[in-house]
Amino acid sequence: MMVITVKDHHDPSGIIEKIKERSASYRVTKLYGKTIIIAWPDNHVEDLIDPSIEGIYRIKKPYPLASREWRNRDTVVDVEGVEIGSNKVVIAAGPCSVESEEQMIEIARKLKKLGVSIVRGGAFKPRTSPYSFQGLGEKGLKILRRVYDEVGIPIVSEIMDPRDINMFKEHIHMLQIGARNSQNFPLLKEVGRSGKPVLLKRGFGNTVDEWLQSAEYILLEGNGSVVLCERGIRSFEHGTRFTLDIGAAVLAKKLTHLPICIDPSHPAGRRDLVAPLALAAVAAGIDMLLIEVHPNPERALSDSEQQLTIEEFSQLVERLRSVARSVGRDL
Ligand code: PEP
Ligand code: MN
Is the CB of 264 within 6 Å of ligand 1? Predict the structure, then answer.
């Protein structure tokens, strides 16, 4: 695939005419302030000359926009002033599900004091069983909005249905795509068009190549604010809930310019494994952690086994800070 960048303030129509004359396929987008044309097959367009062309790159990967072959500098994603992908490792933490306003405000205040930059909480929950707690829905999003208004900390929450996009845009600062929707292409296009920062989880049956192509759907809509999140894959091992694939997270960091997050909670599936997985993630050089913390995990309505108490989380933060320092990062 060829990535053609257009000179600033130039009209791409002359280039597009030439691409059409050569019966090549193409898509046009605007990303990181640049007009970009992706065209293929390569041999139809590789010798294209036009005064409006700034650069033309041959990309071997099936995710040209997400690839470092085109953009070899780390993208920093801004969530309400929180920078993900800079030297500081960002922590997003909070309960698996939003259960009540009191629960969320209480935990958000404590987390903020401990240096957490983003609060998590699911309002629409992707549960395996239709009989399990499905989340508070729109009411949950409104609670999250009040958390932001009262505590002043941005919010990440999972969107499952493209029809909910306006509700999320009104209340939520970062849209989470869950593992089960990692290849829900209409949803990926919708969050791409929303322009909101996206936390894209890796599907537990997806390869790194597939995961990066999911990110490509969002980038192609002109939304470059994507953070990739590894959360464990399915393997033969059932002692843990999923197998945290740190190798894949490290590989992704080499292949893409987008920031990388690790969620140690869902692969652990049990409280006592969360801290070592989180420490390993920071040692491996990731940019963000997503950790489940609940004021009273025993009584949580979802993922009760794996959520940390605030005390456990507080101890973990201290250990994370020293690991971050030892690999040249802040936390
Ligand atoms: C979650 O973050 O609560 C969640 C449902 O995660 P995943 O999509 O990774 O299972
Ligand atoms: Mn959960």
Answer: no
